[in-house]
Amino acid sequence: MVAKRIIPCLDVKDGKVVKGIHFVDLKEVGDAIEMGVAYAREGADELVYLDISASREGRGTFVDLVGRIALGIDIPFTVGGGISSLEDASRLLDAGADKISINSAAVAHPELITRIASKYGSQFVVCAIDARCIDGTWRVTTHGGTRPTERELFSWAREAQERGAGEILFTSMDHDGTRSGYACEQLARLSEELSIPVIASGGAGSIAHIADVLTRGRADAALAASIFHYGQIRIPELKKELQAQGINVRI
């Protein structure tokens, strides 16, 4: 059985890690590199760095920061935010990122998934999907959750997989930053309909929430930010408790 992964997410703005609710009211919580090193030492399986303002402000993710992160940590990390072309992806992967995450640009230009996967392989491509429930339908949103689209969550996830995405990173914008638990019902459906790994994001507030999403939610990995950044949950203790509950994690 493949081990479930624990993935701290570091939302980056101007080189600093920030956190808010629904990507607004942001507060600085630390240095991107220093926090990454600390999480690697604590036993994180992977890291995700998201330049959360890049798409809205039209900026590319800072390649030099990615290079410094790659020198500082020894676990896989994914970089997203502002990636709108094959050239953007190439620069980040060449700088040392293990995977790239595309979101807004993939919705606007789905062929971008295919182009990157064709050149580098599906294992390098994470399709991030931000969605919220609107009138009973889970609608895909872009630009940090600020722009609703006509795309529906499950059909878009299936298309992303068909186009070559190697993983889906689903964030429920209704749950993000609330610490009220993940969207387990939607995650379980994604896991059932897809053959690629699904990473759960949005809503972690306790060890119970993480255990729930890895079992009832059938997620392959749990991503969280606030609970790790503010020390509410430490990764070693989290993994010990998950293991005690029969969930396969790397200790």
How much helix, percentage-wise, in residues? 25-40%
Radius of gyration: 16 Å
Q: Could you give a short account of the major beta sheet?
A: 8 strands, parallel, barrel
CATH architecture: Alpha-Beta Barrel
Oligomer: single chain
Q: Which structural traits does this protein have?
A:
single chain; 251 residues; alpha/beta; TIM Barrel; 8-stranded parallel beta barrel; globular
A few lines on this structure:
With 251 residues, this protein is of the alpha/beta class. 37% of the residues lie in helices and 29% in strands.
Task: Provide an overview of this structure.
With 251 residues, the protein is of the alpha/beta class. It contains 11 helices and 12 strands. It has a single domain, classed as TIM Barrel (Alpha-Beta Barrel). An 8-stranded parallel beta barrel has the order 1-4-5-6-7-10-11-12, surrounded by 6 helices. A hairpin with a 4-residue loop joins strand 8 and strand 9 (147-152). Helix 1 (32-42) runs parallel beside helix 3.
